[in-house]
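README, section 4: Worked example with a bound small molecule

Sections 1 through 3 covered apo chains. Here we extend the same pipeline to holo records, where the ligand is supplied as SMILES alongside the sequence. The molecule in this example is zinc ion. Nothing else about the input changes; the structure line simply encodes the ligand pose together with the chain.
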Amino acid sequence: MLTYNLHTHTKRCNHATGDDREYVEAAIRAGMKTLGFSDHCPQFFPVKDYYSYFRMLPEQAQEYSESVRALQKEYKSDIDILLGFETEYYPQTFDAFYDFVRPLHLDYLIMGQHFVGNEYDEGSYYAAIEGKKEDYLSQYVRQVKEGLRKGVFTYLAHPDIVWYSGDPGYYTLKMTELCLFARERDIPLEFNLLGYLNGRSYPTPAFWDIVARVGNKVVIGYDAHSPEALLQSDAAQHCLGLLAAKGITPVSIEEITLRNEKL
Ligand SMILES: [Zn+2]
Ligand SMILES: [Zn+2]
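The generated complex, written as structure tokens:
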């Protein structure tokens, strides 16, 4: 059974449903001991006419933080609640992002690189659309490494989000590079339950063979976009079985470095 989930969204991101409290109650019902909220973080694009529709607005962050902190207090005898964000690493917006999140005193951040580039600019195509070739994969790996080097991320969400259809040998080469990098820095990689349940291109079996070989720390993330998603313990159990068949056991929450001192 999974006793924690650090990948939880809220309705503020425009594509999730339910009240914050319902997520907490679902997690308790599912027998979880820790629930981390990691909604899509605001970003600060240097152009006025770009609207990033899948994340909360900067002016919602304070209310998000207060809501999660209030639930943390209220439910403290039932479950540990953590406040975080999921975000991409965009070279052009990282400094503004970092200045924005620091005063919020988050418990953690997870990195989920849905785009390469800076999202709003030329060449920033969504990663999980079919047909990505060598150049995209290489940019993805370069950018993820650059982001992880910042030292603020607790783990890497859906590391295999790129829907790749180039040469398999190149995939092995680049993803091995990524996995080795994460292992050296003790950054866990997430097996994404939402991708699994929705039949997305990720989790990618070839990627998890590499993870097994490299020996990374692994977590399972529900990537919950509704409270009910947290109740899918059968699916989670099935994923534990898939990972076990590759010789992978997800780590316990104690083995994950939370409350990063840079936050
Ligand atoms: Zn989302
Ligand atoms: Zn997510």
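What to look for in the output: The radius of gyration is 17 Å. Strands lie at 4-5, 34-40, 80-87, 108-111, 155-156, 189-192, 218-221.

Section 5 describes how to batch many such records.
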